[in-house]
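Technical appendix A lists one of the benchmark inputs used to test multi-chain prediction within the project. The record comprises two sequence entries:
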Amino acid sequence: MFEARLVHGNLLKKVLDAIKDLLTEASWDCADSGIQLQAMDNSHVSLVSVNLRAEGFDKYRCDRNLIMGMDLTSMSKILKCSASDDIITMKAQDNADTVSFIFESPSQEKVSDYQMKLMNLDQDHLGIPETEYACVIKMPSGEFARICRDLSNFGENIVIACSKEGVKFSAAGDIGTANVKLAQTSSVDKEEDAVVIDMQEPVTLTFACRYLNMFTKATPLSPQVSLSMHPDVPLVVEYAIGEIGQIQYFLAPKIGD
Amino acid sequence: AKKQPTISKFFAPG
């Protein structure tokens, strides 16, 4: 028996919004410790990793490890049937070929039950090595989304250069060039407005705008985003999922000239 | 132009 109940059901809807443009189908690995998803996009350029801790749920039970392969478009359609303040429960029997989504209104006066067929997915699992990143940039997630959107008008790539002066985002194309520089903030009223740069050595890497823009679909999950960079290693873009976990996007840098 | 490698070039299956 698997059962996971989330009073802040809205978080699950936001997680789906954050992955459904990048992934069409994926497996949710359910274990005693929580729920994880790891999948590459269709082009195998990026990797998405979602981690939802068991203790973050209001009720969590997983008697046996369970892999639930899901069509994420279908899962998203079902979650769209819930209201933003609904309590969401996911439920499956051991060895079941369906999963149930139960939506309860806060007053408990409306309860909806949706069942979805599970899929057998044969997906490659990748090992992500422990890395001490040369630069870790923490910044407002809305600002990052804005920069990615704005610079996408100039070219298909964004160059991210992190140095002790700050972080510079650049793009170049037919219409001209664009540069956005952010310095570390000295003092802010709200912690979520801060730009914090932890740099061991300067790093400059180039990334495809298309993927960065898809990662920013996670912006509603968290007011802050962290970007971890290291020479010749994939970028990690990480958003917290409320108090219950995090979503990480890994993107291979563009190489050569 | 720069080339786009796949993510599996960096992360081994496991």
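Chain A has a mean pLDDT of 96. The helical segments of chain A are 10-19, 72-79, 141-151, 209-215. Comparable benchmark entries are summarised in Table A2.
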